[in-house]
Amino acid sequence: MSEKTPPPDPIRPRSPLPKDNRTGNDRRGSDRRRSQHQAVESERRIGDRRKHDRRVEKTSPYHNLVRFLKEKGLYPHEKAYDQPDGAEVVFRGKSILSLASVDYFNFAQNPEIKKTACEAIRKYGAGGFSSRLSMGNLSIHMELEGALAEFMGKESVLIFNSGYLANLALITSLLPRNATIFLDQKCHLSIHHACLMSQKKYFRFSNNDMSDLERLLQKHRDEPEKWIVTLGVFSSNGLLAKLDEIAVLARKYKARIFIDDAHGIGVYGDRLRGAADHFGVLDEMDLIMCPFQMAFGNIGAFVVGKRYLLQAAHTDAWPYMFTYNIPPVSAASLLKALEILGREGREYQKKLWENVAYLRRALTEIGYKILNPNGHIIPILIGDDVKVCAFAQRLFHQGVWVQPFYYPAVPKGQATVRVTCTAGHTRSELDHAIRAFADASLWLANS
Ligand SMILES: Cc1ncc(COP(=O)(O)O)c(C=O)c1O
């Protein structure tokens, strides 16, 4: 068969003439063809990319929910407010009462802490410097760790720049390599994420279900390193973990315990040391993690525990080693927060619980179904994902900001609004919120 010469490609430039023979016109012509070809190629690639993006979007499991919410105007765009103002926030010039903040003692707005922060900025500057193993560790960070160890009555402390990273570091690197993890199904997503990444064996037990936990411990009793992992207070339903019973099971099956007590420290316990202190089992907790955004009104997190468990962070825990330390202004503010907690923490705690009791009573009288009988987090069951967004939006238009929780934050069909008040809310502010809830309940009944 005779070989056919392929027809010339109209777009691809033909091979240029030998350099010496090319005239100026030849060169300009071939340059023009080359740039036309490049333009067509890049448009083709952009087109392919768009088609690919559309395909990925359509096959994403959230695509239908996102499209549906957008059509209904319920897509949860993160609302950007202009300024916090005590228990309120200023949103486009309008004051909105916040019942969504977990800054339980309003320390982010505390005048004494703000003054300390201003002085620290003058001394250290406004930002951070580096990771702790590099230039990011100042003597004020070490001072903070010492003060936190004393506050919690524990041997050793490490600070992290977020609770998420602290959980990641603990589960992936600080728990021994051969650890088998038994985790409560309602642990924070950072813990689930960490377990997935850790390549360790892990088993989930039903929320706060001690017989399910014991069943798993019994089944895997021969595992050499058993770790029970739970929250002190469950952030989605406000329940207090049964740490007293967990401590008994840990003793029985020779397991160790790690709790994330984000919402317990400061709020529970005579010494403000959290859920484990409340049950009198603080000494039996091997590791406790707490982010600073709750009882301390700041950013970052700390972990307390035995020195031998924490020291591996400096060599093994990437989420500790390869990220910036909290800035010194945060360390200074946190030291001041600890000083205030030491001085008048019990009064802050009492005020918070009085506000919680007042709000709970009123919401129950209106007829709301609160998912737990007595926690400081007040989760109201709404059920439907779309309805919960509309409900939160309705309250927002009435000047009250509450946080809707829906899938994947909670299981499908169990959408809730999480209501949290702080020690700083006044009675008249709470009464304003209660009126808005009463109005929204009528809307809910008719929708
Ligand atoms: C229980 C719990 N653990 C961990 C975290 C994560 O903390 P951070 O926001 O500091 O990463 C949160 C944050 O809301 C939380 O509620």
Topology:
Layout: H1 24-59, H2 63-72, E1 83-85, E2 88-91, E3 94-98, H3 111-124, H4 139-152, E4 156-160, H5 163-174, E5 179-184, H6 189-198, E6 201-205, H7 210-219, E7 225-231, H8 243-253, E8 255-260, H9 275-278, E9 287-291, E10 301-305, H10 307-310, H11 313-316, H12 318-321, H13 328-366, E11 378-383, H14 385-397, E12 400-401, E13 403-405, E14 415-419, H15 427-446
Parallel strand pairs: 3-12, 5-6, 5-7, 7-8, 8-9
Antiparallel strand pairs: 1-2, 2-3, 4-10, 9-10, 11-14, 13-14
Helix pairs in contact: 3-13, 4-13, 5-6, 7-8, 13-15, 14-15
Bound molecules: pyridoxal-5'-phosphate.
Pyridoxal-5'-phosphate (PLP) binds next to α5.
Explained architecture:
The protein has 447 residues and is α/β, with parallel strands linked by helices. The protein has two domains: 66-106 and 344-446, Aspartate Aminotransferase, domain 1 (Alpha-Beta Complex), CATH 3.90.1150; 128-326, Aspartate Aminotransferase, domain 2. Helices cover 46% and strands 15% of the residues. Strands 4-10-9-8-7-5-6 form a seven-stranded mixed sheet. A four-stranded mixed sheet has the order 1-2-3-12. Strands 11-14-13 form a three-stranded antiparallel sheet, with helices on one face. Strand 7, helix 8 and strand 8 (255-260) form a beta-alpha-beta unit. Helix 3 (111-124) packs antiparallel against helix 13 (328-366) and helix 4 runs parallel beside helix 13. The model has no long low-confidence stretch (mean pLDDT 90). Bound molecules: pyridoxal-5'-phosphate. The site of pyridoxal-5'-phosphate has 12 residues, from helix 5.
